[in-house]
Design brief:
- This protein is an alpha+beta fold and about 375 residues long.
- The chain folds into three domains: about 1-125, Response regulator (Rossmann fold); about 140-240, predicted glycosyltransferase like domains (Thrombin, subunit H); about 245-375, 2-Layer Sandwich (Heat Shock Protein 90).
- The chain contains nine helices and 20 strands.
- It has a six-stranded antiparallel barrel. A five-stranded parallel sheet has the order 2-1-3-6-7, with helices on both faces.
- Strand 9 and strand 10 (about 160-165) form a beta hairpin.
- This is Response regulatory domain-containing protein.
């Protein structure tokens, strides 16, 4: 496993390298983005831990270039370090592609566990992503490199990497530079530069003519504006989403995958053998998915480094009207926040779905049982 640390802080650099050498990583270090680029080209590290602001630039600009150069290959996992006065938030860092954000000073061992989480999740095919597509539309003014005036149109399919520009004529060429103004409201405006990443010159069913615009260097300033806008749109969609019939087996599998992304699977296991028969419930999938995922995380996290520890997930039919989801963790070792989580987040969701929750914690195991009405 190859690990690269990038920082001008020699003492911090030494501490990080010592910890990861002790953990049997192949360790490399750099004091600038220029040096880091040389190491990446030669050694292809799997993980980079770096200061957000370096002597020769912003890490995210470097990381975007690194991802573009990687093409079909997976870019290294990135974990960012910031000073206490930094305005960079975890939401923006993750939206920019980072795995985690640490504010100095921090515990080196905690950083190691975060790297282990990232490496396991990457190898298992899990990713952290906050820009799942939402129904977000904006007025758009765009000026092509070959034009003298702005074109007024609209934009859809907006993400943290760029946006779609609907055009009926004057379709630009690939890699052409553009100036743009995304106008969500009178106060929420993003103005900047980008390049044409792809074009669609012929309309299709459900797909308009236009082009995909990729944000140019300095993407972080766009993302800082987009995070609250996209999060608000996603929250609004979840809150107004209608109840639908969902396969409980599929829902549990999705939640287990999400929990594994958050938990180091180095020692703890999550076991689930789905029943042969299909079990369906009427629910708002994003909410139940969130409740299951957060619950498993808080149950398993304290025992994540205990040998032979495991969490079993069981689906049990009570009768024609009810089904139970039973989470059993051995050994017992629940988070201090489990009661608060249930009271503040899980219970309100279950109340909305006319479901109930029971818990039992003893010296042998921890058991949480959720009873849901069948469809």
């Amino acid at each position: 496993m190859k690990f690269l640390a990038v920082s001008q802080d020699k003492s911090l650099l030494k501490s990080m390298c010592a910890e990861f050498e002790h953990q049997k990583y192949a360790v490399f270090s750099a004091s600038s983005l220029k040096d880091a680029a040389e190491v990446c080209e030669k050694e292809k590290p799997e993980v980079i831990v770096a200061d957000h602001i370096q002597s020769d630039g912003n890490f995210f600009d470097f990381y975007d270039s690194l991802k573009m150069a990687a093409k079909a290959e997976a870019a290294p996992v990135a974990i960012l370090l910031v000073d206490p006065k930094s305005t960079l938030t975890p939401e923006v860092a993750i939206a920019m592609g980072a795995w985690a954000l640490y504010t100095k000073p921090f515990n080196i061992k905690s950083l190691y566990y975060s790297v282990e989480d990232a490496v396991f999740s990457r190898r298992a095919g899990y990713t952290k992503r906050l820009d799942e597509r939402v129904e977000l539309i904006s007025r758009l003014e765009i000026k092509l490199e070959t034009a003298s005036e702005y074109i007024s149109t609209f934009s859809t399919n907006i993400s943290f990497g760029g946006f779609f520009a609907a055009l009926t004529s004057n379709i630009p060429e690939l890699n052409e530079k553009v100036d743009f103004k995304l106008k969500f409201t009178n106060s929420d405006v993003i103005e900047g530069k980008g390049r044409v990443a792809w074009v669609r010159k012929t309309p299709k069913v459900g797909a308009q003519m236009g082009c995909g615009i990729q944000f140019s260097a300095g993407r972080e300033k766009y993302v800082k504006v987009l995070v609250p806008i996209i999060n608000e749109a996603r929250t609004r969609q979840i809150e107004t989403a209608s109840f639908q019939i969902e396969d409980l087996n599929d829902l549990l599998a999705l939640s287990i995958q999400a929990a594994k992304e958050k938990i180091s699977k180095k020692l703890s296991e999550i076991e689930y053998i789905p029943p042969t028969e299909k079990v369906t419930i009427m629910c708002r999938l994003p909410q139940i998915h969130s409740a299951f995922t957060e619950l498993m995380y808080e149950l398993i996290y304290p025992m994540r480094e205990i040998p032979n520890s495991k969490c079993t997930v069981e689906l049990k039919n009570l009768d024609e009207k009810s089904v139970q989801v039973i989470f059993t963790c051995i050994p017992s070792g629940t988070s201090l926040y489990i009661d608060q989580l249930i009271a503040e987040k899980v219970q309100p969701i279950l109340d909305l779905h006319k479901a109930s929750i029971e818990s039992e914690f003893n010296s042998i195991n921890s058991t949480v049982t959720i009873t849901l009405p069948k469809n």
